[in-house]
Amino acid sequence: MTYSLKQRVFKGVSWSFADNIANSGITFLVGLILARILSPAEFGIIGIVTIFIAISNSIIDSGFSNALIRKNNARDIDYNTVFYFNLGVGIFFYIALYFCAPLISHFFHEPLLIPVIKIIGLVLIINSLAIIQRTLFIKKVDFKTQTKISLCASISSGIIGIGMALKGFGVWSLVGQQISRQFINTTLFWIYSKWRPAWQFSKTSFNELFSFGSKLLLAGLIDTIWKNIYYLVIGRFYSAGQLGQYTRAEQFNTIFSSNLTAVVQRVSYPTLSSIQDEAERLRSAYQKIIKVTMLVAFTCMLGLAAISKSLVIVLIGEKWMEAASFLQIICFSGMLYPLHALNLNILQVKGRSDLFLKLEIIKKAIAVLPIIFGIFFGIKYMLLGSVGTSFIGYLLNSHYSADLINYSSKDQIKDILPTFCIAFGVALCMWSFSLLQISNLLILIIQCTFGLLAVLLLYEKLGLSEYQEIKQMLFTILKRK
Predict the structure, then answer these.
(1) Which of 90-104, 213-227, 364-378 has the lowest mean pLDDT?
(2) Structure confidence by residue, pLDDT tens digits, 270-329
(3) Are 44 and 189 in contact (CB under 8 A)?
(4) How far is the C-alpha of 87 from the C-alpha of 89, rounded, in Å?
(5) Nearest to residue 336, comparing CAs of 294, 274, 397, 279?
(6) Neighbours of 196 (CB within 10 A)
(7) pTM of the model
(8) Cβ within 8 Å of residue 328, ≥6 positions away
(9) Is the Cβ–Cβ distance between 265 and 356 less than 8 Å?
């Protein structure tokens, strides 16, 4: 990567990571406090609602954000057209959820879902009002502003949620937290952004953007349904309490895997799109991004799997023990999320949204098997099956993206294998400390201390190029501070 591009990526990564820490890290800490106050069943109710909110949000965006980011000469009429479409669809889906609430409640045998859905569904309209502002910041790789917004929204909503929980509001404290976070987010996006909608709507612009975005919409919709299908299966065939256990495990996983994926996806897509016509430069930049990203992903996710039991017990108590066993399995599929995202980004950068959609259909057809395991054999079998399908999904993604930039699956695996082996070996040693008959807090301290020192010494000794890239980035950030 050239110096200017590298600086752009590093700056974007650093601020995007800070944004995710503000948005999800603080939310995670708030979640730990709420998990000690509330019951697994109350978290399970919100887990059920999450299914429908996530699917609706995916349709509301309709792939237009990515289409706008990719379009280098986007005009005001394009942004206005997408804004009014997003808002209209947001209102439509809120009304649909409002009237479908009794049916959803009946399906899951949970009466409390009716009022919860009717209130929390308002986030669909609130979110739709800020999609364009967020897209403009991403397009400019301006994550500094987004970090400020996320920090304010996460802290404020966290205080509201904890306050309501302490006052005995139960599940409504989680509803209040989510509604307030999205409302503050949207309000601040409007304050910080200079863009304002005008009364414009172009059918030509809509058709142009939708021709690219529609395939991403379908692919994203399929992916969103499958990401939340476990919520549906556990909520329907098991108890709200077990769903609550699963949602806690997913939240721990999100801190590293999903946040890292979001950071990489948001920064790499606009950056790589800007050099989409320079084949050699694109391949070189992509290779470095993959190597750096997967060093972090393997180290964090395998380490998290190793300490899952002691971490969950120390942070939120033994009533969440089942979540610890779920988390250990989820980490092995979660470590590949960034790799999936990067390979799929190449398809978007190259304008192959048709391949993107095709891949999502194939992968989700394969993913039906773990769902069946979950229904008939148990939640753990479903999660184990998802690990296998995650590996298969990566091979499919990399196979198609390889032809577009001349970077084969074999070459990718060769590049990331050293960091996987190091991370796996260190994680295995960390896990062995869990066999000691001492307090979980002491085990956790020993595991984290050993793991941190071991990976640093090994990476320093081996002098891997991706490790040197990370060091350089961190030193640059520290010098600026």
Answers:
(1) 213-227
(2) 666 666 666 677 777 777 788 888 888 899 899 999 999 999 999 888 888 888 889 999
(3) no
(4) 6
(5) 294
(6) 11
(7) 0.68
(8) 305, 308, 309
(9) no
